[in-house]
User: What shape does this take?
Amino acid sequence: MNRWYHPEFETDLISAARYYESERPGLGREFLAAAEASVETIMAAPARWPDRQAGIRRLPLDRFPFLIRYRLTADTVQFLSILHGARHPATGADRT
Assistant: This one.
């Protein structure tokens, strides 16, 4: 299975990591490691998490209140956003 990242996925990821790093040195790296582990978990079994809306699935990160939102196509996992769980569910829903 291939993987594709929306251009704003990286922006979301870096922004959150910078915030955590400013809160405590090293915490940003821990956030990035948790995000990478969640991406690999998704890649191992992408259909495991149910469709939530319009074919978009989500997986919460361990230790951090963030969700990775992604969509499946025939041969690709499309990573759309990584957003704080308190954000409105429609945030980033227009990403294709």
Observations:
- The CA atoms of residues 67 and 83 lie 5 Å apart.
